[in-house]
Write a structure and sequence with these properties.
Blueprint lengths: L23 E12 L2 H9 L7 H14 L1 H4 L8 E11 L4 E12 L4 H19 L7 E11 L6 E2 L1
Antiparallel strand pairs: 1-3, 1-4, 2-3, 4-5
Helix pairs in contact: 2-4
């Protein structure tokens, strides 16, 4: 077997066998943000977007994306999430919307990919709903900040 667990003995990518791992409570927290024009963030905050409630829609999109991560990311195990929290916070002083996602499961593999996927899809949804006002928006800083559970224990950025 290769030193990289996602490669099999032939050096090919494969899904790692997690059958022997112990179930535990696992949590991951990820974040990112989308920068936008003053006009776009003002319309978003006032609820004046043609497409409707961008923040509410983005929260739902983030939850849905976390639940479908295994369908989107090759070799990612399908998980039964026990909790997913998508928080979107407009910051007009910074001309950005910050997104933080907490994902949790009780299982034999972590939820980092679910948290990261939820952040990206939530921010893409904000982009889609605000693009009529600003096509130059920029999604940035998507990263894992915390994970807990499993053999590797706790990690903090």
């Amino acid at each position: 077997m290769s030193e990289l667990p996602h490669l099999n003995a032939r050096g090919e990518a494969h899904m790692v066998d997690i059958g022997g791992k112990t179930d535990s409570h696992r949590v991951a927290v990820a974040e990112g943000r989308i920068r936008m024009s003053a006009e776009a963030i003002e319309a978003l905050q006032q609820g004046n977007l043609e497409k409707g409630d961008a923040l509410g829609t983005a929260r739902v999109a983030g939850v849905m994306a976390a639940k479908r991560t295994a369908d989107l990311v090759p070799l990612c195990h399908p998980l039964s999430l026990t909790h997913i929290d998508v928080r979107l916070t407009p910051n007009p002083d910074d001309l950005a919307v910050h997104c933080e996602v907490t994902a949790a499961t009780r299982g034999s593999t972590g939820v980092e990919m679910e948290a990261l996927t939820a952040v990206q899809v939530a921010l893409l949804t904000v982009y889609d709903m605000c693009k009529a006002l600003d096509r130059g928006m920029c999604i940035e800083g998507v990263r894992l900040n915390h994970k807990r559970g499993g053999r590797s224990g706790e990690w903090n950025r």
